Amino acid sequence: MDISITVNGEAQRHDVEARTLLVHYLREACRLTGTKVGCDTSSCGACTVLVDGESVKSCTMLAAQADGHAVTTIEGLAPDDGLHPVQAAFQANHALQCGFCTAGMVMATVSLVDEIPDPTERDVRLGLEGNLCRCTGYHNIVRAVLAAAADRP
Amino acid sequence: MIPAAFDYVRAASADEALAALAERGDDAKLLAGGMSLLPLMKLRLATPAVLVDVGRLADLSYIRDGGDHVAVGALTRHRDLETSDLLGTQCGVLRAVASQVGDNQVRHRGTLGGSLAHGDPASDLPAALLALDATVVARGPGGERTVAAADFFVGFLETALAPDELLTEIRVPKTGAGGFNYQKFNRRAQDWATVGAVAVRNGTTRVALVNMGTTPLRAAGVEAALAGGASIADAAEQAAEGTEPPSDLNASPEYREHLARVLVRRALTEAQA
Fold first, then answer.
1. CA A144 → CA A18, A45, A153, B132, distances in Å?
2. Which of B5, B55, B105 is facing A108, going by the closest CB pair?
3. Who has the most CB within 10 Å: A38, A99, A103, B269?
4. A60 vs B109: CB contact, 8 Å cut-off?
5. Which of A48, A60, A108 sits opposite B39 (nearest CB)?
6. What angle do CA A49, A55, A56 make, to 5 degrees?
7. What gap in Å lies between CA B66 and CA B15, rounded to an integer?
8. Quick one: closest CA in A to B104, which residue?
9. Which of B198, B194, B207, B199 is nearest to B256 (CA)?
């Protein structure tokens, strides 16, 4: 089927099988491999992207369901020569170890801070419960999210 | 993991969805948010030949004051429930339980109707609607009918919905802002409840259990004991009466029975506070 999705502000049009998952569409059709396939069972959140500004797990959504909508991946958060404030906060707080969960963590954070602009530590921990860090680097991730929220203009 | 191939039909209206179901009924599944169905399809535990996507039926996404009840469109997302001011004042329990479903990403996609139609006894919202004595509205080729929540859940992943019916609305009684509590016990973040207990106290006391049988269950023994004047501690001892808790990696039936008694006691105590 023919689907049109605005990915990172750019109109994309592809002919895909109806069963194509959004994460595979992004990685293979759009060649945007920043979004990771982690557990592939909607548990770990590594594949988190924004659909119309809200976090979703792209391994548990059909590309067809995003037809006509706007998707933002980690590649689309900031211009090539800069970092999004959440990315900068992750860097400054050393909020990653192996980095595999990071794209999903950052995307989930952007959505979380949009919904709760002034989160408590508990808000952050609950709000990121859908994202797992197998290095267990949660403390610095929570610090980064709180810093990103505090720095919001 | 990729689902088995299927024909994809995107419904632009409830009537279109019903027409697709009438044509392919037994081979078709309705897709709302997909938070329960897509994982099953990826594991090939569900292999529908036709997927009828009702996810764009915006006219079935609403939370309205219906007079003596709050009317919730079947395609209302958990996110919309957990942020609803109307539910906050008129049916706080539904808002609170919705905020406990899955994680943020799941609540951005998952819908109330989808959760009910999936009929998973380990899900949070079916038990809440059972405790609320909610009413479900289903539309089929013969028109609309209403089903009491108590009659809706008939077996494991099985509901009173016919293959050619679409769940359109859920009507929840106005129980107010407070007088409820939900105890959800699990060992990992975002997991399903090992056992859960919902208590709603407004005049009468109603208690429903999550993951204590093949369907969500009312804790009838607890309710009867309370109605007969028993204390919370004594009534909660009846929590496992009439249940058939499953055995799985998370818990044995005996442990679930213990959890039910403890969680019901806590839920009743908190609901009263």
1. 38, 17, 16, 41
2. B105
3. A103
4. yes
5. A60
6. 70
7. 23
8. A127
9. B194
From chain B, pick out residues whose CB is under 8 angstroms from the CB of A131. Answer: 103
Token pair recorded at residue B158: 């099985």
Distances (CA, A) of B221 to B83, B127, B239: 34, 16, 7
Model pLDDT for residues B172-221, shown as the tens digit of each residue: 999 999 999 999 999 888 889 999 999 999 889 999 999 999 999 999 99
Determine, for residues A65 and B4 on separate chains, whether the beta-carbon distance falls below 8 Å.
Answer: no
- Residue A129 CA, distance from chain mean position: 14
The mean predicted confidence, pLDDT, of chain A is 97
Q: Do B190 and A130 touch (CB under 8 A)?
A: yes
Residues 6 or more apart whose Cβ sits within 8 Å of residue B255:
none
Q: Distance from B231 to chain A by nearest Cα, in Å?
A: 34
Is residue A130 a contact partner of residue B100, using CB atoms and an 8 Å limit?
no
Mean pLDDT value across residues B92-107: 98
Per the CB < 8 A criterion, the answer to whether B208 and B217 are in contact is: yes
pLDDT in tens, B11-67: 999 999 999 999 987 899 999 999 999 999 999 999 999 999 999 999 999 999 999
Give all strands (DSSP E) within B131-256, no chain letters. Answer: 135-140, 143-148, 153-155, 158-159, 166-173, 180-185, 195-202, 204-210, 217-218
Give the HSE-up count for residue B9: Cα atoms under 13 Å, Cβ half-sphere: 23
Contacts of residue B143, defined as CB under 8 A and 6 or more positions apart, other chains included, come to none
Cβ-defined contact of B35 to A112 (cutoff 8 Å)? no
What band does B118 get if pLDDT is binned at 50, 70 and 90?
A: very high
Tens of pLDDT along B120-158? Answer: 999 999 999 999 999 999 999 999 999 999 999 999 999
Say if the Cβ atoms of A18 and B35 lie within 8 Å. Answer: no
